[in-house]
Design goal:
The chain is built from eleven helices and nine strands. The relative contact order is 0.10.
Length: 406
């Protein structure tokens, strides 16, 4: 694999960098999640998305008719790399553009794509993903929200949970169960829904970090036109897989304190009269995180190599989240632990706040987008070729699968 830019790629990177330098602030190291979802953060994100859209940088790989410039996959990666070096608003559009957009692109009608994709790219309309439920997290096929067809419309009842950004979203993609007499992977159908529809109730979930980026979403006799169905009736799992395949590229690494922060911190912190960096255990930990960081870098380069050849990245992309989320939690713990008992006190010091926020937020990241256990199973079965786990629900109608109430 050749990870060096070609002449054309180097020129494209230069063009990206020049535009970003003229239109975005250089990353000052400030947290991008401090005010997630606040009116100030939301407005800043909308302005930044619109600025990118008007300059042709919003969704590079999309067709021009939907707001893109039909750039190559590797050009999309180059843009993402360069944008990540700047302190610009993040977290508002990633799910919509990275997961909802590709599903609409593949399954929506031409009229629907013309109506919904350009406003999505411009940032006028924000989208969310309505998958997880209280009884169906990593096992999405265990969902219980129900859709009943009534002529040319569907009546939906149920609950979704951990829906990022639902409190300010305009639309969402939704998978629900239409037939409990079929296997759990076969009885589902997929829709997109107006989040302002009567019967939809959104309740933000207060997180231990102090934020409220996740939500519970309740559906009470919500009417969804059949024209908003994506795929055939019963194709819910097939369409959902399209979304989940894009999730690894859309969500990316766990953001927060990294090995450079730990190294810099260890050089400045006192440890019984000596710099913490002289402590063998601290040095061993930093060395481990350095190795993990470079392993993640090369895993992403493998993904870049596949994209540059027009290939689809494989299940090995699951490695990224397993490693990065655990690394984030361990580095956050390292920073807090180095302060002894003072580490439990809330601080406005940017470095301490970074470690504390990383430690508090990382456990959620180890669940979001697939738990560590689920991702390790994917790696074991689909990357290493190990035998699948035994499944007691295989070939059983969903209504006959034992539950905690059975």
């Amino acid at each position: 694999m050749d990870f060096n830019d070609s002449t054309e790629q180097a020129e494209f990177r230069k063009t990206c960098r020049k535009w970003l330098e003229g239109n975005a602030e250089l990353n000052s190291g400030a947290s991008r999640e401090d005010s997630f979802g606040s009116s100030k953060h939301l407005e800043a994100a909308k302005q930044w998305q619109k600025k990118k859209y008007e300059a042709g940088w919003a969704m590079l790989h999309w067709p021009k008719s939907y707001g893109g410039i039909e750039a190559s996959p590797i050009e999309r990666i180059i843009w993402s790399e360069e944008e990540s070096k700047f302190n610009v608003p993040k977290g508002i559009y990633e799910i919509g553009l990275g997961m909802c957009g590709p599903v609409m692109m593949q399954y929506a009608s031409e009229d629907q794509k013309s109506r919904f994709l350009p406003p999505m790219a411009e940032g006028k309309e924000i989208w969310c993903q309505l998958f997880s439920e209280p009884s169906a997290g990593s096992d999405v096929a265990g969902l219980r929200s129900k859709a009943v067809q009534d002529g040319d419309k569907w009546i939906v009842n149920g609950q979704k949970v951990w829906t990022s950004g639902a409190q300010f979203c305009d639309y969402g993609i939704l998978v629900v169960r239409h037939d409990a007499n079929l296997d759990k992977h076969k009885g589902m159908t997929f829709f997109f829904v107006d989040m302002k529809s009567p019967g939809i109730e959104v309740k933000p979930i207060k997180q231990i970090t102090g934020g409220a980026s996740f939500n519970e979403v309740y559906f009470n006799d919500v009417v969804i036109p059949d024209s908003q169905r994506l795929g055939e009736i019963g194709d819910g799992w097939k369409v959902a897989i399209t979304t989940l395949m894009n999730e690894r590229l859309a969500v990316g690494d766990a953001s927060g304190a990294d090995v450079e922060d730990a190294f810099r911190w260890a050089k400045s912190q006192d440890d019984s009269g000596e710099p913490l960096i002289n402590n063998k255990a601290a040095r061993d930990s930093i060395a481990d995180w350095y190795c993990e960081a470079n392993g993640l870098k090369n895993t992403k380069l493998r993904t870049m190599s596949a994209l540059s050849k027009g290939e689809t990245p494989g299940p090995e992309a699951s490695i990224t989240k397993v490693v990065s989320a655990n690394k984030l939690q361990n580095i956050g713990n390292f920073g807090i632990d180095s302060l002894d008992m003072a580490g439990m006190l809330k601080s406005e010091d940017p470095d301490i706040k970074n470690f504390q926020g990383s430690w508090l937020g990382a456990p959620g990241l180890r669940i979001a987008g697939g738990t560590d256990e689920i991702l390790r199973n994917i790696i074991a079965e689909r990357v290493l070729g190990l035998p699948q786990d035994q499944r007691a629900d295989k070939g059983v109608a969903f209504k006959d699968i034992p539950t905690g109430n059975s």
